[in-house]
Structure to design on (123 residues):
């Protein structure tokens, strides 16, 4: 890189500034031009076209959060398979063994969750 090397980031900076300016301009135009006609119907919470029932602050079961965390965990872990698949040929057997160890660790975690009943909704 010649000079400070920051000139190579100029297109990225220009892109980010353009995106921020466009988002700000669209928001400003919407606020300035948009109609403000609040009504009782518009102020009510929307629940799939049905009348809202119960309290919005009702506690949820921990199972919902547990399933969400497990989904995020395995989803993020699955992302690591894509770069591995891309360079699989250059890694040869070493890369294959390493990925099988990685998948085995994930499988052990999955089996542990299954054995503990974290995925069973009928309890």
């Amino acid at each position: 890189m010649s000079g400070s090397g920051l000139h190579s980031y100029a297109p990225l900076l220009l892109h980010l500034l353009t995106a921020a300016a466009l988002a700000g301009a669209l928001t400003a135009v919407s606020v300035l031009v948009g109609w403000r006609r609040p009504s009782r119907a518009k102020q009510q919470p929307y629940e799939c076209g049905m009348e809202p029932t119960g309290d919005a602050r009702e506690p949820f079961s921990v199972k919902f959060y547990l399933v969400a965390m497990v989904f995020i965990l395995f989803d993020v872990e699955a992302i690591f398979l894509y770069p591995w698949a891309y360079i699989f040929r250059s890694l040869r057997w070493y890369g294959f063994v390493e990925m099988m160890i990685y998948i085995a660790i994930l499988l052990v975690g999955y089996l542990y969750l299954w054995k503990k009943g974290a995925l069973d909704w009928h309890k």
The helical segments are 10-33, 40-43, 62-79, 81-86, 88-116. The radius of gyration is 25 Å. The chain has a mean pLDDT of 85.
